[in-house]
């Protein structure tokens, strides 16, 4: 699994790791049933503390992206409730769109950006061969 951590970023390392795993799921680089590296392996690979990886994995578990299996470790398991996911997305978008509105970004422009991002994920899924 390829992970790129920006140690100069203001964003916490565990959040960067969480976000990158979610992007890998969205682009089908990681799929249902895939096993993530062990906490120790990923920490050694990235050069970070094992507690940081463990925190990212715990958040992913809480959010329903992974399940923890005693034999396999962290396994991709998308069981996230869709209605809750939609409400969470709406809550997060509310602030992003408020900022866009303040910067005179139109509804059409915002929709175009959303379409572009979704298209990137869809293209990513068509290029992954399993």
Could you characterize the architecture of this molecule?
The protein is mainly α and 130 residues long. It has 2 domains: 13-76, Winged helix-like DNA-binding domain superfamily/Winged helix DNA-binding domain (Arc Repressor Mutant, subunit A), CATH 1.10.10; 82-127, no CATH class. Helices cover 59% and strands 6% of the residues. The chain has 5 helices and 2 strands. It has a two-stranded antiparallel ribbon. Helix 1 crosses helix 3 and helix 2 packs across helix 3. The protein is globular, with a radius of gyration of 16 Å. The two termini are 15 Å apart. The model has no long low-confidence stretch (mean pLDDT 89).
Query: How many strands?
Result: 2
State the assembly state of the protein chains: single chain
Beta strand %:
5-15%
Taking the alpha carbons of the first and last residues, their distance comes to: 15 Å
CA-based shape: globular
The residue ranges in which pLDDT falls below 50 over 5 or more consecutive positions are none
Largest beta-sheet details: 2 strands, antiparallel
| Widest sheet, order of strands | 1-2
Which CATH architecture of the largest domain?
Answer: Orthogonal Bundle
The residue fraction in helices comes out at: 55-70%
- Write down the secondary-structure element order: HHHEEHH
Structural class: mainly alpha
Q: What is CATH's topology name of the largest domain?
A: Arc Repressor Mutant, subunit A
Question: What's the tally of helices?
Answer: 5
Radius of gyration: 16 Å
Highest CATH level, the class of the largest domain: Mainly Alpha
* Mean of pLDDT: 89
Tally of discrete structural domains:
2
CATH superfamily placement of the largest domain: Winged helix-like DNA-binding domain superfamily/Winged helix DNA-binding domain
